[in-house]
Amino acid sequence: MKSIFKIGAIMGISGVLFTACLKDTAITDYTDTGIKPVVLIPNGNFPGTAEAPLVTFEVSSTPSEIRLYARVSWSKPLGKALEVTFVKDPAAITEFNTKYGTSYAELNADAYSVPTYKVTIPADKNEAYIPIQIFTDKVSLSQANMLAFSITDASGEPVATNFETIVFPIGVKNKYDGVYSGRINATGWAAYGIQDNQTFSIPGKGLGLVTAGAASVSFVSYANANTTLLPGFTNVGGFTAFGAVTPRLTFDPATNKLSSVVNTTPDDGRGRTLFLNPSVTDSRYDPATKKIYASYVLTQTGRPNMIIYDTLTWVSAR
Question: What torsion, rounded to 10 degrees, do the Cα atoms 53, 55, 60, 66 define?
């Protein structure tokens, strides 16, 4: 296993390293030159860290595609075809995690399809690719996902040892995913020092909505140590969070109406649950303004219900 990795090319964009300069006359016998063609995985965007962007797709029932390229580097057209053999290489994922302190796991098997692990670079051509389908609606959201492949053979020709392995970090996002600014209003818990019919703005970097399903998102509060707990305010405007409450919002992707709000944390004995406010019928995502209007209810045993009103405005991709 080599310790140099390349972040995968996406949707047919291949790297520019080692591009062959094709001449008029093909070479069929290069043994007398002392220089052989070298086969490699082309890619020119590896930054040398784990900070490169994911290969990210929007969740969809329609498969997406990544392309696994093989290239022959040679100064003239090669007058014969080369069959290049790849292999899935989970050991590369382990080494990547060790090198960069990441926690990628191999993409779940039902979320992708590789039609073949062999590709033929035609005579007088310098590259070919294998199309890999990604089924974004089946990608596990409980882990950071990655695919890795290596070249094992190139019809006996030399393989560039520092360009024989490639990794594809795979991410999926739905259309509600992003970083949001916003305001929160709540009523019902004034007796407990919580805002009561008061509206406060989320401070700092705001609130992240993180893809949790094809049309679901969970909270991450950047302004409160990246906690996933329900954000709120005290009656004097202090930013806070509610323990054992991790909201998940689900929308109807056809209408963008908010269809449910639930607490994904098991009950810790306080009976804290979330449900959509039945008195508000227009909780929704507005694609024109990229705003979310959400009203929902927080319960706790022995307390009145707290009614929450969120107005969130999309700021940037997460």
Answer: 160
Phi and psi at 223, nearest 5°, equal -80, -5
Q: How far apart are CA 85 and CA 295, in angstroms?
A: 55
Q: Are 163 and 242 within one domain? A: no
Q: Report residue 52's pLDDT band, with 50, 70 and 90 as the boundaries.
A: very low
Alpha helices in 212-293 (DSSP H): none
Return the DSSP state at 155.
T
Which residue is listed with tokens 């082309």? 42
How many Å apart are CA 285 and CA 287, to the nearest integer?
6
Domain co-membership, 208 together with 111 = no
Boundary (domain end) residue, out of 172, 188, 213: 172
Pairing of strands 118-121, 38-40: unpaired
Helix, coil or strand: residue 192: helix
pLDDT 10s digits, 55-111: 889 998 999 999 999 999 887 768 899 999 999 999 999 988 888 888 999 999 999
**Distance in Å from the first CA to the final CA of the chain:** 33
Report the predicted TM-score, pTM, of the whole model to 2 decimal places. Answer: 0.76
Residues 148 and 163 in one domain: yes
Q: Mean pLDDT over all residues of the chain?
A: 87
> Dihedral of CA 283/208/148/95: which sign?
negative
Give the DSSP per-residue string, 259-307: EEEEE-SPP-SS--EEEE-TT----EEETTTTEEEEEEEEE-TTSPPEE
Classified as helix, coil or strand, 110 is: helix
Phi and psi at residue 93, to the nearest 5°: -65, -45
Domain match, 50 and 107 both: yes
- What is the average pLDDT across 291-295? 98
Residue tagged 């990229």 (tokens)? 290
* SS3 state at 60: coil
